[in-house]
Amino acid sequence: MPQFNFQMVFWPQLVWLAVFFTILYFGIVGPTLPKLGKVVTEREGKINGDIDSAAAAKAKADALGVDYAAGITAAQDAARARLNQARSESSAAIEAQLSAANARLEADAAAAKAALDTARAQALAEIEAVAGEAAADIVEKLTGVRPAPEAAAAATRAALA
Hints:
The protein has 161 residues and is mostly helical. It is 88% helix and 0% strand. The chain is built from three helices and no strands.
């Protein structure tokens, strides 16, 4: 047995080491490394795609927020213009007509405010739902586990607050 031949131990073992290392490297590691590189590249591409889709969802949510704010401002301006016009027209009327017009305008303003509050609540709920779904999808794609809807909604509310 060459392992027990202690006079010529070093050089033959180095030669055999080099032979087996070469066989192992070119036989096992050589074909395996390109496959590993391909897997890493695909995973990186998927992660970048998920990040891009999250950015697009955030941009969409931001655009919805801007549209919502513009709608609120336009509705408030329209309500103010309508209120001012009604006040200027009713100032020429007699005192009884003025009090009746003011009561009617206050009711319209309350209805418009209630409608605005309802629209605001609905828009915020839609934004939270969209952002919560997007966040849950992102977490599911990144970790493979979908979070509970309550947890995703709570995290979305905390992020939007």
